[in-house]
Design goal:
469 residues, alpha/beta, eight-stranded parallel β-sheet, 14 helices, 19 strands
Length: 469
Amino acid sequence: MPSPESTVIRNGLVVTASDELHADVLIEGGRIAALAAHHSAAAESFSADRTLDATDRYVIPGGVDGHTHMDFPFGGTFSSDDFESGTRAAAWGGTTTIVDFAVQTKGHALREGLDLWHAKADGQCAVDYGFHMILSDVTDSTLKEMDLLVEEGITSFKMFMAYPGVFYSDDGQILRAMQRTAANGGLTMMHAENGIAIDVLVEQALQRGETDPRHHGEVRKALLESEATHRAIQLARVAGSPLYVVHVSAQQAVEQLAIARGMDLPVFGETCPQYLYLSTDNLAEPDFGGAKYVCSTPLRPQEHQAALWRGLRTGDLQVVSTDHCPFCFSGQKELGRGDFSKIPNGMPGVEHRMDLLHQAVLDGHVSRRRWIEIACATPARMFGLYPKKGTLAPGADADVVIYDPHAEQTLSAETHHMNVDYSAYEGKRITGRVETVLSRGETVIDRRTYTGRAGHGQYVPRGICQLLN
C-alpha cells in the first residue's frame, strides 16, 4: 500500500485536551511530524505534497469511541450497522477509532468469540478499530485465556450484572474475573444493573398489562443501577481491580462513582449522548415510537441530565462513548410490539457524538478542551491507545479532523449515514460540523464528501489502561 501523501494543515486553531494553539500541522508517513505557530519560521519551512486550509476552523484529533456494537447479536436479531457501514458513519462524524465488543458465547472459548469478531471486521473498516472482550462464562480455562488476551492487546473485559440467561455473571464470577484483571493488568468493564431484580419487575409489569416502551424505563429503576454500581465498586475493591462502569445514566450511580473516586479508587465512568440529551419523554412517544429509544441502561427522567453534565465537568465521569447498537424501527424494534421486553435494546449514535458534544461546548456544559478530553484523549488513555490516538503531537497517528464550529445542521435520518431507518435526534438543530477527516494521513472525508474505503481501517492492539499510574 502506498504511504499517504504528506500534508500540511494551515491557519486552523489546534484544539487538544491540554492546549489550544494557532498552529500549522505537518503530516508525513501517516503520522504527525510537527506543529508550529502560524507564520513562524518553522511553519514557513513546512513543505508537503498538499496543503489544507483550516482558516476559521478547528483542527482536532479524531474521535475515539470506546463503546460500539457492530453486527451484534441481540434479542433474536443483529444490530443494523456492520463494520463497513458503521465505521463509514463513524468517519462522517469525525470518529477515527472505535473499540468494539467481541462476544464470548456461554460454553465456548474466548478465542472463538474473538476470532469471529476479527472475521466480521477484517477488510471491512473505514477507520481503525480495536476490541474489548465480553466475558459471559467465567471458568478456570476462560480465566487463563484472559491473560493471553491481555498480552495480545485485548486489555479490557466487559461483564454484565444484567440479562440473566444471556450475558449475566453472578458476584462470584465477577470477583474471580476481577481478581484476574488485578493480576494481569486488564480493565474490568461493567454493565451495572441488577438484572435479577429487574426481571421480576418486568414480569410483574407485563402481568399488569403494561406493555408499552415507556415501561422499559420504569422497570429498570435508577436505584437498581445505583445498587449494582455500588456492588461492582465493592467487588473491585475486594479484588484490587480497576473498574470502568459503562453507560452511566442515573444521578444515584454518578454519586456512587463520586464516592469511590473521593476515596482515590481506580474507578471510572462513561456516559453517552442519549443520556445527556434524551429522556423518558422520548420513551413515552405515541404509536410505539418510544421503541426507538429503548436501550439499557434506559433513558432517565430529564432531571438526571444535570448530574451527568456535572459529573463530566468534575471528572467523576471521564468518557463519553456512544454504545452504538442500532436496530431499525421497521422489522427490528417492532419485534417488541405488545411486549416491551422483546424490543431489541440499543440506539444509533456513532455519527453524532462529536457534534453533540460540540453543541455542549456552545451550551456551556463543558469547555472546548474538555470536549476533546472526553471524546478523544481520555478514551485513548483508558483503553491503552494514547498517544498513538487521541491527540495531535509529533509521532501520533495523523487522525485529524478539520471542524467547522460555525456550520449549522439539522440531524435527521434523511441525511445520516448510519444503516438505520430513524434518527434518535430527528429535527435537532446543532451548530458545528465535521468538514474533513484524515485517518493515518489518508483522507476519508474530503469537505463533506466520503473518499474512504472499506479495508483502510487497521486493527489496533491496545496497551493496558494508562490512567492507573
